[in-house]
């Protein structure tokens, strides 16, 4: 059995944060942390005796502010982010095909999956894929801002994510229906936006969503491009 990630939830933004732990060791990686949960997340690390190696972002979020900068300052961890998201202060600027290493030989494979944003990435670790806002459980992220593209998202999901083994567990960046985990196989067969849908139908569907602008986008995106810290910090 592959080790399970620790899944944490932010009620305000319906955001999942994940802690990955190197089996048999103390090194850990946190994915998509939220600013007002920084003390909660630090308590989890302390309680489990973990040493944070990396703070990892899937993209520059529009609906919440990251705690990446604060966690880096408090723990000595390094920040890692997609190169195409403009998160300049991150020590590791990740490209498609990169491998992030932590612990005793633990590796996280980096997949560039544009569509929700131009720089969005997903991360594969031990039979798990952390999909950010690219692929949600029975859904997907919107494509109408931050250089989003329904065409690109269709290619990212069908060409890269659906090419993973069916048993790969899908851990999304958000959920709004009380769901927590899925599999690539289930999403390929049942995802209401993507399963058995042609590219043209998907692009048409995404173009007709008419979703409201995220309330925090004008604050969150610039903040997240600075790892959630005030500019100049």
From TrEMBL:
Gene3D superfamilies (alphabetical): Ribonuclease Z/Hydroxyacylglutathione hydrolase-like
Residues covered by the Metallo-beta-lactamase domain: 14-174
InterPro entries per UniProt: Metallo-B-lactamas, Mito_Persulfide_Diox, POD-like_MBL-fold, RibonucZ/Hydroxyglut_hydro
Keyword Metal-binding: yes
Keywords in alphabetical order: Metal-binding
A Pfam family this chain is assigned to: Lactamase_B
Highest taxon, organism lineage: Bacteria
Secretion signal, residue range per the UniProt entry: none
PANTHER family: PERSULFIDE DIOXYGENASE ETHE1 (PTHR43084), PERSULFIDE DIOXYGENASE ETHE1, MITOCHONDRIAL (PTHR43084:SF1)
Protein name: MBL fold metallo-hydrolase
